[in-house]
Design a protein that fits this description.
The chain is an all-alpha fold and 372 residues long. The protein folds into 2 domains: 202 residues, Citrate Synthase, domain 1 (Orthogonal Bundle), CATH 1.10.580; 97 residues, Cytochrome P450-Terp, domain 2 (Cytochrome p450-Terp, domain 2, Orthogonal Bundle). The chain is built from 16 helices and 3 strands. The chain has a 3-stranded antiparallel β-sheet with strand order 1-2-3. Helix 7 packs across helix 8 and helix 8 runs antiparallel to helix 13. It is globular.
């Protein structure tokens, strides 16, 4: 019987990203994730994922100018956002908003490569505005418009918190976006590529990806990791907490991975960020809790942390609500999703995997009166 998770199936050829699960390595278009996390901006990574080359200064300035000009919500989304803020969960809001945005995209149903690229950049540019507007409205605060003078991550913190962020905090958030930007053929990316393979539109593909990411076994893991840390309360409680969950056969969120058999390289970067950020904000307890969880889960279960464990601690110290952590995953992964959709369009064949039938055979229809 084939693996239920299709672990050994190659679903597509891609130039966008690559993983070595045994060595714990991740590359975007040939660049090691640690190199990019330490040196590249998220905007540079957006360009890299879409062009498989890092931008020149002129190319980066052109990308920034276009994205800054596309940050505003259209009037229809601005009108329905108060209702979504009152009635919908954050990921449901994002799914609905992206779907609705398709009706107001300036390129309409133009499916030329140039139009699809513009659609991709608009989606990436607008997602921070959607999330920040939603959060401000549901907490009874005045909506803060985008700041054209700030880059992507800093502008998000500006719109979310209503004040210009500390540059060091903005850089940390930017780095998390770099780390989350793409991750080969994960569930949500596969979903987006399947939809794109039918030649459905960009917005449908991304709406499907958001719906997939919403699940707690994919993007929702960072939220669950934060809730777990809050339940643990202090580092010395970690061992007993983990033992109790394992005894009840409950999953430990933020650990284990479908591909990595060692430390997720993104978790390595985020672990360092969590400690540095915690020390700077005099709020080190979360880094301590997550490190205690890492140690005890490895001792008791032999599992390594994945990207979601330490990301939760970083986002928490930055003042981001727990139920916004998965939307932030989507904000960053929008770069990779849209790149994969465009790559699928460029060399397309409809994705239609086979299946193995395991049900009954040889049956013959019986009239209803003869069925026991």
């Amino acid at each position: 019987m084939p693996d239920k998770g299709l672990r050994e199936i190659v679903a597509a050829s891609t130039k966008i990203s690559d993983i070595d699960g045994e060595k714990g390595r991740l590359w975007y278009a040939g660049y090691d994730i640690a190199d990019l996390a330490q040196h590249a901006s998220f905007e540079e990574v957006i360009y890299l994922l879409h062009h498989t080359e890092l931008p020149t200064r002129t190319q980066l300035e052109e990308l920034n100018e276009f994205m800054v000009g596309e940050r505003e919500m259209n009037p229809f989304l601005a009108k329905i956002m108060p209702t979504l803020a009152q009635q919908a969960s954050p990921m449901s809001m994002l799914r609905t908003s992206v779907s609705a945005a398709s009706a107001y995209d300036p390129d309409g149903w133009d499916d030329s490569p140039e139009a699809e690229y513009r659609k991709a950049m608009r989606l990436i540019a607008k997602i921070p505005t959607l999330i920040a507007c939603y959060q401000r409205l549901r907490t009874g605060q005045e909506v803060v418009p985008p700041n054209p003078k700030l880059p992507h991550a800093a502008n998000f913190l500006w719109m979310l918190q209503g004040e210009e962020p500390d540059p060091a905090d903005a850089r940390v958030l930017d780095t998390t976006f770099v780390l989350y930007a793409d991750h080969t053929m994960n569930a949500s990316t596969f979903t987006a590529r399947i939809i794109a393979s039918t030649l459905s539109d960009m917005f449908s593909a991304i709406t499907g990806a958001i719906g997939c990411l919403k699940g707690p076994l994919h993007g929702g893991a960072n939220e669950e990791a934060m809730k777990m840390a809050e339940e643990v309360g202090k580092p010395e409680n970690a061992a007993a907490y983990v033992a109790a969950r394992l005894e009840r056969h409950q999953k430990i969120m933020g650990f284990g991975h479908a591909v990595y058999t060692t430390m997720d390289p993104r978790a390595t970067e985020l672990k360092q960020l969590a400690r540095e950020l915690g020390e700077r904000h005099d709020d080190i307890v979360w880094a301590d809790i997550f490190e205690a969880l890492q140690e005890t889960v490895f001792e008791q279960k032999g599992l390594w942390p994945n990207v979601d464990l330490y990301a939760a601690g970083v986002y928490h110290v930055l003042g981001i609500a727990t139920d916004l952590m998965t939307p932030l995953f989507a904000l960053a992964r929008m770069a990779g999703w849209t790149a994969h959709v465009r790559e699928q369009y460029a060399d397309n064949k409809v994705i239609r995997p086979g299946s193995e039938y395991v049900g009954p055979t040889g049956r013959v229809y019986e009239p209803i009166d003869q069925r026991g």
